[in-house]
Amino acid sequence: xKENPTFNHQAxxxxxxxxxINSWFKQSKAITQELNDFFMLPGSKMIGKDVIVSRLKxxxxxxxxxxxxxxxIIDVNFELLSDGKGMxxxxxxxxxRNVVQKQSKIVSGPFKLYFALHNGEWKIVNIEFPxxxx
Length: 134
Hints:
DUF4440 domain-containing protein; Nuclear Transport Factor 2, Chain: A
């Protein structure tokens, strides 16, 4: 990727976001492939990927399944920095039915996935997503 000057960063960001969202709807362990090794939170707080994975398992473990997941990507933006690094985000709206013991509740709202480019790969470094809490 680094050697290709015509690499489409916007498409890579969108594809990574789509993989994350689809993995979320399936409550799939594959979701971890899109995550960076550390997350940057407001107030210059940093936490490790293992904390995020644990949080995701806890969130997914409370539900029997998610049904009817839908999303719309509204905006994609990125900035390339020096040394092959960059920052970006993908935002939009998402919704799904959270089913617990045959009872369903609609979970929906805006989302924003923050990314960092490092070693030629865009990885998620912060998550704002309906149903996700730190």
